[in-house]
Amino acid sequence: MSLFRCLLVGLVAVFALPAKALAYEPRALVELIGQDVEYDSAVPLPEDVTGFAVGEIIYTPDMIAAYMRTLASTSDRVTVDSVGRSHFGRPIMRVTITSPENHARLDEIREAQHAISAAGNTAAIPDDHPVVIQFTHGVHGSEPSASDVIMPLLYFLAAGQGAEVTDMLDRSVIHLIGPINPDGAERFASWTNMHRARVPVADPQHREHFNEWPWGRTNHYWFDLNRQWLPVTQPEAVALVRATREWMPNIAGDFHEMWPNSTYFFSPGPPDGLHPLLSRAGLELNQRMNSFLSEQLDSEGALYVSEEFFDDFYLGYGSSYPGLVGSVPYLFEQSSVRGIVQETEFGTLRYDEKVGQQARVGLALIRAGLANRERLLSFQRDFYRESARLANAAPNLAYVFSSADSGRLNDFLDMLDVHGIEVHRLRERTRLSNTDFDPSNSYVVLVRQREFRVVEALFETRIVDDMTEFYDVSGWTQPLAYGLDFAAVRPGLFAPNLAGERVTPADRAVPAPERTDYAYVIDWTNFYAPRALYRFLEAGIRARMVPDAITVATADGEVSVPRGSVVIQVRQQDVDPDTVHALVQRTAGDGVRVIAATSGATRQGSDLGGFALSNVRRPEILLLTGREQDVNATGEIWHLFDHELNMPVSMIDISEFARADLSRYTHIILPNGGYGGLDEADAERLGQWTRAGGVLIGIQGGADFAIRNSLTAASWAERSGDNGGNNALAYDTLSQWDTEERISGAIFGTDVDLSHPLLYGLTSSRLPVQRQSTRGFAPGDNPFAIPVRYSRNGLLSGYTSQANIQALQGLGAVHAERRGRGAVILFADNPYFRAYFRGSARVLTNAVFFGDTFRNPARRRPTAE
To answer: 590 with 530: CB under 8 angstroms?
Structure first.
């Protein structure tokens, strides 16, 4: 036994028991794979490396990586590398399997794969060019068979003997990437393995089958990575997209699990739910290859389903995004054991059998790819030829975008770079759609480029009117989400020289100001200005916020600074001036503009020592977590403050709230959730804490908790229901009826009050938000309490019924009021949805830094009884 194996066995010795004592005995791997081939005995089995057979436990990411490396060192069919790292620093592994001859020319094969899809390519497909197949595994860490299937697939491809296996390796290059989400996979494996019993328990209510919050589905910051292929705000998604673009696979299979009481799903989803940017020819090829999958599952007597439920409309899935770059994407959804054995409506599920079935279906798809090799390669060539035709016929020639916020603008440029999008500087000042675009901070993306479909997927503002049911969001236009100014360039308006030099992401740093001994003024426009301000506050440096636009006297003349700027006095601090100057240097390194003031007098606006300025206190944030909370929405808040702004966030589960000392926190954030675990006494404590000076921030379900418990004067607007004219409806229209009364993740425009402290740093009076409900705040007797309202005809992208559009206009998206010495700030929408709504995220960061700098009016508006 190797030293590595000894260590692994030792690590899990707490649950390792003699095999003969187990009621559950995993089947031999060759039986699970179920292929009529011989195997090379020199290739080790997974248990030879990990100490455990497939299906005996849930493999950890380290075990899977160890097996990959072992086979790469023992088989000339296998190489291994890492395509990136998770938030926690774990490697995301890729194993490449093909014939030794193909391995010797991998670079040549990859270059030829790109040449096939080159613009204008009409050449015949080379006879010796292999089909490229990419399998991605374990995007959801709590779906373990999706990752553990790597083991049998890798063993078969490395050890299998015979003419069929040789042909398979000669005519294909196969990439297995995973676990994609090693942080979540580690959490789930640890949970399940720590419950491993001598006699496994199949009771579905057994603790093993209920992984504790935040569960293992999500990554380190609790993001669902299977929604991240398009926005790529998470490092795991960046790695996946770059790896996919590196090889341009012909087939991209993504392995998953679904609920236990289900069968087996494989793509496509409902054909009428296919996004228009995805290829109908690709759909037909998908359907053609499915005969191999049906044949495999039929031979096992296994039930399965296709062309239902999992629509391919949202383009940020692992089973949709590859379809934008010429792949035929596949989604595999396996019924989940959520442990080792579990009773279901379909009998008792065994984990070893689930892993084996995933492997057999994966091999069936490889065979389908080989049988359709020339069709797949021709499809990819023709796909890009069709993309060029579509681009030439597109209604837009280019997109121009801009922002005064260089932080958000640079983040957006980074995202475009991940997708291989060509970006140019704007050559000359231009006015489009009533917006002036300045070349100093404006860029152009031409539609007529290789990745036309990806460009459209990111930029198009599609108002959906031909479908009403969506598995995920219906609108995700990225420049809207980032809060950028952007406009389409139509034919006939396009100046040939509008696109200037091509650009790539650059250093974000801006020049640091000259040293001053008087004061520095931080411009609040940049998304990362809160990060800079927190550094000063953490160092014990006092700061004051300026509520109006001012001119600052500098050694080089006057400089204009917008509302929300922050004054850092150099003297009369508890730290020496050198510390202040050093932090100013770091602030400029973040791209945040700092002005060196030489005088406190200003020609316009408040003086730097003016009465209107407010002290900014160092935030001490408490974020409520726990089983009832929306894990994604909660994780997004954590990510914003911890990862993006480098601010500590205390997290306490609701079950521990009654024992918490609230006096140490300045801000308490109630994310979206149920809050059934908080009682009246807890609500009263929150009310007392707020009146004593705390800032309470409630988001979606958190806002609802505050309203229900009278922690605020806010209320939800009442809405009269549609009785349909009292006409009876056919039962098979029930889903459509329900969907029409919901909002499936559409983007709405809001009208904002830029003079309110919650909007400081923003420059446009219209702010896009992500709507996932039909609720909005009702206007009350405080005419200043709603600084963000839904616009008239506010739908900007996605689907929403006309009734919902009309019902929302004029209602509040944000409610803000003072309560005693504190404040309550409520959000009807998630302001940092999936970390790409960076415009509305500014309102949340302002709520933390400036949430106690506004006041209630002295008089109230009369309201109707």
So the answer is: no
Three-state SS at 130: coil
Half-sphere exposure of 241 (CA within 13 A, CB side): 28
C-alpha span between 670 and 196 (Å, rounded): 36
Quick check: 480 and 405 in contact, CB under 8 A? no
Q: Which residues are within 8 A (CB) of 477 and not within 5 positions of it... i.e. 6 or more apart?
A: 458, 459, 460, 461, 462, 747, 768, 796, 797
Residues 336 and 258 sit within 8 Å (Cβ to Cβ): yes
Kindly state the DSSP code that residue 28 receives in the 8-state scheme. P
Sorted by sequence, the CB contacts under 8 Å of residue 647 that are 6+ apart come out as 530, 531, 534, 619, 621, 641
What pLDDT is recorded for position 720? 63
State the amino acid at position 531 in one-letter form: R
Rounded Cα–Cα distance for residues 631 and 644 (Å): 18
3-state SS, residue 255: strand
Cα–Cα dist 560/558, whole Å:
7
H-state helical runs in 560-641: 577-589, 631-638
- Distance, in Å, from the CA atom of 744 to the CA atom of 224, rounded to the nearest integer, reads 17
Q: CB neighbours of 192 closer than 8 A, spacing ≥ 6?
A: 57, 58, 144, 208, 211, 338, 339, 340
CA-CA distance, 764 to 485, in Å (whole number)?
8
Report CA 42 to chain centroid distance, whole Å: 42
Per DSSP, 455 falls in state H
Q: Is 462 left (phi over 0), alpha (psi -120 to 50) or beta?
A: beta
Q: Count CB atoms within 10 A of the CB of residue 461.
A: 16
Q: Which of 517, 470, 465 is nearest to 797 (CA)?
A: 465
Amino acid type, 510? V
Beta strands (DSSP E) in 127-180 are: 131-137, 172-177
DSSP state of 273: G
**Running DSSP on this structure, what letter comes out for residue 41?**
T
Q: What are phi and psi of 598, to 5 degrees?
A: -105, -5
**pLDDT digit string, tens, across residues 656-667:** 999 999 999 999
Residues 10 and 332: beta-carbon distance below 8 Å: no
CA separation, residue 695 to residues 198, 614, 830 (Å) = 51, 15, 18
Mean pLDDT of the chain: 94
Q: CB neighbours of 423 closer than 8 A, spacing ≥ 6?
A: 413, 416, 417, 443, 444, 445, 502, 503, 504
**E strand or H helix that includes residue 256:** strand 251-258
What digits encode the pLDDT tens for the residues 551-595? Answer: 999 999 999 999 999 999 999 999 999 999 999 999 999 999 999
In DSSP terms, 424 is beta-bridged to: 444, 502
How large is the average pLDDT for residues 409-421? 98
How does DSSP classify residue 388?
H
Q: What is the spatial distance between Cα 357 and Cα 336, in angstroms, rounded to a whole number?
A: 12
Q: Which of 521, 507, 515 is nearest to 585 (CA)?
A: 515
333 burial type by CB count under 10 A (0-12 exposed, 13-18 middle, 19+ buried): buried
Mutual orientation of helices 351-371 and 373-393 as an angle, nearest 10°?
80
Is-contact 103 79, C-beta < 8 A?
yes
Confidence band (pLDDT; 50, 70, 90) for 743? confident
Helix (H) or strand (E) holding 559: strand 557-561
Mean pLDDT along residues 276-287: 97
Amino acid sitting at position 751:
D
pTM to 2 decimal places = 0.95
Q: Identify which of 255, 197, 202 has the alpha carbon closest to the alpha carbon of residue 226.
A: 255
Show the DSSP H helices in 216-327 as ranges: 235-247, 280-300
Nearest to 746 by CA among 638, 649, 657, 829: 829
Distance separating alpha carbons of residues 829 and 729, to the nearest angstrom: 32
User: In this structure, what token pair is assigned to residue 149?
Assistant: 């299937």
Contact 525, 404 (CB under 8 A): yes
Q: Rounded to an integer, what distance in angstroms lies between the CA atom of residue 304 and that of residue 265?
A: 6
